[in-house]
Amino acid sequence: MASKRHLRRKACAGKIRHETMEQAQAMARNGTQPYRCPFCGGYHCGHPCGFKQQFQKPNGRRY
Ligand SMILES: [Zn+2]
Questions:
Q1: pTM reported for the whole predicted model
Q2: Separation of CA 33 and ligand 1 centre (Å)
């Protein structure tokens, strides 16, 4: 089970923090999307919480 601290490490800590959604959008790459961070109130690029549940791996394995 994922703890809140674990989620913060995945979703916030170590990521670049943007002040606005526009900045985050500009930095988003293929496979990532800008999202508002519930931990620091800023914006990050990546996979927001729950995103990977909709994401299918190219090798066909599903999580
Ligand atoms: Zn954050």
A1: 0.63
A2: 14
